[in-house]
Amino acid sequence: MTDIRVFIDQIKKTGQLSIVKKKVSTKYEIAVLTAKVDGANAVLFENIKESKLRLVANLVGTRARFAAAVGAKESAIHQKIISAIEHAKKPKIITDAKFFENKSKDLTILPIVTHFEKESGPFITSSIIYTQNPEKKTQNSSFHRLMPIDKTHFSVRMVEGRHLHRSFTDAKQHGEDLKVAITVGVHPAVSIAGAYQAEWGEDELEIANSLLAGKLALTKLPYSGRTVPSGTEIVMEGRILADRTHKEWMVEMLRTYDFARKQPVFELENLYFRNNAIFHDILSGYGEHRLLMGMPIEAKLNRDVAKGFPQTKQVVMSNGGCNWLHAVVQISKKKETDGKKAIEKTFAAHRSLKMVTIVDDDIDPSDPVQVEYAMATRFQADKGLTIIEKVRGSSLDPSSDQKNLLTAKLGIDATRPMSKRPEGFEIAKIPKENKISLKDYL
Length: 442
Prior knowledge:
By secondary structure, the protein is an alpha+beta fold. It has two domains: 4-287, Electron Transport, Fmn-binding Protein, Chain A (Pnp Oxidase, Chain A); 309-420, UbiD C-terminal domain-like, CATH 3.40.1670.10. 25% of the residues lie in helices and 26% in strands. The protein is built from eleven helices and 20 strands. Strands 5, 6, 7, 8, 9, 10, 13 and 14 form an eight-stranded antiparallel β-sheet that branches. A five-stranded mixed β-sheet has the order 16-17-18-20-19, with helices on both faces. The chain is globular and about 70 Å long. The model has no long low-confidence stretch (mean pLDDT 95).
């Protein structure tokens, strides 16, 4: 079965899972412990003060576990994701699902975590919402954070213009509530596909099925009619109300507070969960959040930029840029104008980008020290700088014009100027450097 438990067992065998048996609270304590292991092991909390359920965090908080989730080597993550997008497969439908083992009408049984001191409340951060595309009649799945209001209602964070919001707007225009399903606790390949911004009408679960080698099974729900992964830990179905909103604010991917927004409200019809269910929590702005959101876009950039500019060797969304706002592009430079062309192609491929840095193929784009070295030795501001004013950017950037979604963008050509002698930029090497080991001498 392709569920979260199979993946937890997989990483446990490789020593990448820490188990906390001591009683912990959903109010800040779980968030603190998750923050402290950021970039290290996943954590399974087995004894939660406010709930009988278990909780896992930092599940794919490293590139190694991200690669394991999609069944690839770290060096082949992009190829695997791109292949899954281009060769999406319909999952099989089965009638049986383990989440039907338990049923409730009370959302308070869930271990919903309060993460940050100034957020408007606790949030479910791993929730994927499934709805029908009103035009294509296909199914859409996407991440949306949920804040509990009472035992049967959540506020739903939606980004205007994205697929769920378009479906919700269509239902509202027809005077209807929008029936949806919500999952918490799925195999991370399903989460990775759900985080990808697929084209309008495409089904992200078909991408997930391709990532899982065609082994994903779905089960249809009785009220919403949506199909969800059969191995899901927790499933909710109900409707997003056309005529009700609730104010909330939260910490975003940049680890900054978003402004208060009035958001639509979800009303619960059914809550299903497996025996000894595992709740999945994602700490906003930390490793798992950034990898889930950023890696599918990084894969898309590697495909699209290389198509438009064949000299492209590699595109990396930098950690300092929150894996979302900054990209470093490694190229094999042939002409003096190649740097600026690469800047243009990269900005066109991901409109949330705020800064693009172009480096030569002897510079590792994932190493910030090497990238800064290229800027220090190969970049001249009066020749290699590109500034684009008042263009569409990321709604997350607090320094931008968030009301009108406008920002200024910066391109840096940190490649070797071809008018200079090439020897002046050659990085010196010591003979036999890779053949001599220090431990043999000490």
